[in-house]
Design brief:
The protein is globular and about 50 Å long. Helix 1 packs across helix 2. With 255 residues, it is of the alpha/beta class. It contains seven helices and eleven strands. The chain binds 2-phosphoglycolic acid. The site of 2-phosphoglycolic acid (PGA) has 8 residues, from loops.
Amino acid sequence: MKLRIVEDYEALSFVAAAIVADEIERQGPLVLLPATGSTPIGAYQQLAQRHAARELDSSQITLVQLDEYVDIAPDDRRSLFGWMKRLLIDPLKIPSNCVLPLDGYQADLALSCHRYDQSVRASGGLNLAILGLGPNGHLGFNEPPAGPSAPTRVVQLSPASIESNARYWGSRSLVPTRALTAGMDIILSAQKILLLVSGSHKAEVLRRTLAGKMTDELPASYLRLAPDVTVIADRPAWPWGDGGAHLVDDIAISW
Ligand code: PGA
């Protein structure tokens, strides 16, 4: 695991976008899972700018949706699909046959999860996953408790996730209570993972992700089992400087 500590959110977005752009260039066909949430927005905007300036070729990207609310139609602005469409699918001009959705607007949700797993498998699996860190240590909507082999499934959102998503819905009572999430199994098997963490409110959960016990109560702690993880944290999210050198294979501070 690598830890890159950068000055602020702007630097985090720049570094993350540069790594993703490198992977796109290096890999050719790239199966990319992009988290929603507020943290990666800056990086996605940078990728969109590079694409608009013809500096980024998106023609070989397949996008894999990470999570979705139950009973919210994909064309609803508040759906996570809609979110991914506004920030990535439209700006990068990804054709619909190169997007693998996780559809929560289906009567048979188990079938929806099964189809999703099948298409991810048929795509050859994830080359790159861009993840955010939930305030409760969730990855996607793998709410605690979730072990490393938790499958793609329907989950009940935790009070912490409902609280943190209330800003997108206007109030806590409007946030859907159920969601579909890519399984921990799919996420952890990504060839490469970028975990983006910004803000002092994430410092403690990031410290426990890297340093605490690996436990189902903190699903992100299982990132330590994944083959290639780079954590990019801004200074507020990792206020300990190089005080984590013993926790990771490689630590770099730039500001
Ligand atoms: P955030 O969400 O990027 O909006 O902080 C992260 C998450 O809950 O997974």
